[in-house]
Amino acid sequence: LFIAGPAPAQDEGRTLVLHVDNYARLPSDVLARAEREAARVYEAAGVRVVWIHGDDEAHRDAGGRHLVVLLLDTEMMYRKTWADRIADDVLGTAARGTDRAYVFTQRVIERALLSGHEAAQLIRRVMAHEIGHLLLHDSGHSASGIMRATLSFRTNILATFTKPQADEILMALNR
After folding, report:
1. Listed residue (80, 110, 108) closest to 94, CA to CA
2. What is the DSSP letter of 8?
3. What is the number of alpha carbons within 13 Å of residue 54 lying toward its C-beta?
4. What pLDDT does 115 receive?
């Protein structure tokens, strides 16, 4: 016998609800591609991702862990990097205490242009990486995968979390 109803609580524990503020005014198609690819990184770890934009009320009450992703415009980026003394080569940062991941969009776009990669591809990598910092206890950096300390342009293969990182993320989401 099957009864329709709300999803089991364990599914909520594997859901990541990401509230996106697109201050950089990225075109919707670029942002959609970046989000799709970032979601694939988390899906490979067993995590379902729900994206919420601005005042979208449709998923505000979605169960799961809620985090904020801020795609900063150039002026906001300069203020943030100056105030926090962030080096010029850093593409994003995460603030665990506020559950906010910051993407320095102008820097990412410039890096994409210099490297010949699509902006959406690099934005995806930076978003997934910084969100990872919010979910992992230590620095979260690894020698390979999405949590490398430096951005790798060597491959177009989807970089994912290591098995221990994926396990830690699932544990963090189940708290």
Report:
1. 80
2. P
3. 6
4. 87
